[in-house]
Inverse folding.
């Protein structure tokens, strides 16, 4: 059972909702036994969770202490981390087999950097209109000189799902 952390904006970006839904639906088709790990239930994280539940996927939400009172769907597994936002991200990324970045701001990018530092296969959706699009321009292959793993950038959410489903621990692949 593959555990996939999904890092995505905690607010809304025009056009990203549909791309997030396409990604989740493609995941459900390609690796239906996967468990999605997300950091909350607001913004586009809510879109990911709702889409996954519609398709019968398992979802684990890692709540930061500041948002423990948020209303959640009944069918999710809830982890009350007792941590603030960035600390809960460490737990979520550490629990993942692979990380998919769907677009976001600094919190989403921190989760991408954590995945890289932990050696987790990392797939980043680009052309989203989010600040995280700049990662591909600034770091076209690797985030630093250590070359921990090659970051895979993809503009198509379906291709992103294919990569995420095919990625194994330490398996580095490249997609268009």
């Amino acid at each position: 059972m593959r555990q996939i952390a999904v890092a995505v904006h905690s607010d809304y970006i025009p056009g990203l909702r549909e791309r997030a839904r396409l990604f989740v639906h493609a995941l459900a088709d390609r690796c239906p036994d996967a468990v999605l790990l997300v950091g909350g239930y607001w913004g586009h994280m809510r879109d990911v969770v709702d889409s996954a539940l519609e398709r019968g996927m398992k979802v684990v939400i890692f709540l930061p202490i500041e948002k423990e009172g948020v209303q959640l769907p009944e069918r999710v597994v809830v982890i009350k981390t007792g941590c603030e936002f960035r600390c809960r991200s460490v737990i979520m990324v550490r629990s993942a087999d692979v990380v998919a970045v769907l677009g976001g701001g600094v919190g989403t990018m921190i989760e991408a950097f954590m995945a890289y530092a932990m050696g987790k296969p990392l797939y980043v959706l680009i052309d989203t209109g989010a600040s995280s699009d700049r990662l591909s321009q600034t770091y076209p292959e690797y985030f630093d000189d250590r070359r921990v793993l090659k970051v895979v950038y993809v503009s198509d959410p379906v291709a992103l799902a294919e990569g995420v489903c095919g990625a194994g621990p330490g398996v580095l692949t490249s997609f268009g």
